[in-house]
Amino acid sequence: MIADYPNSTRLQSLSQPKKNFCQQHPRSPYSLVSQSCLDFKTSDRLVRLSLPKIKKDNHVRMEFSRFAYDPTNSCVFNQAALRAECSDYIISLARPKSDYKGYQFAYPVQREISKSAKNATASERISKLSTPRIKKDNNIKEL
């Protein structure tokens, strides 16, 4: 079958294996910056667009202020709910719990590590699982 075709240079070039893409187009580790980019001057409009917006009206309306509370402006329209007061029991429930005298935490902040934890060794299975897999990459040549 091969004998049917005449021996041509085109056939010879097609029979050669292709080069790897990285070998065909080697990249330089340095990137070249054109002179026009180095001499660039920003326009006034570009500087104006890069600045943050400054709001002229910077005050907060009183109905949205957290310091001004007006019960008539509240979302609750029930007059009884507006006059409601908490009982002493509810107020006591709202206070955070305090530690009683002589309270000790379950564990001290600094404590000793047990001997068994210091002498622990990983099992064969744990050691096998903890080692990373090394992938063989055919495109990387070793130096």
From TrEMBL:
Pfam families: THEG
Compositional bias per record (Polar residues), positions renumbered to this chain: 116-130
Bias type Basic and acidic residues, positions: 134-143
InterPro entries: SPMAP2-like, THEG
Annotated SMART domains: THEG (SM00705)
Highest taxon of source: Eukaryota
Stretches the record annotates as Disordered: 1-20, 115-143
Annotated keywords: Repeat
The keyword Repeat is annotated on this UniProt entry: yes
The protein's name: Uncharacterized protein
Taxonomy of the source species: Eukaryota, Metazoa, Spiralia, Gnathifera, Rotifera
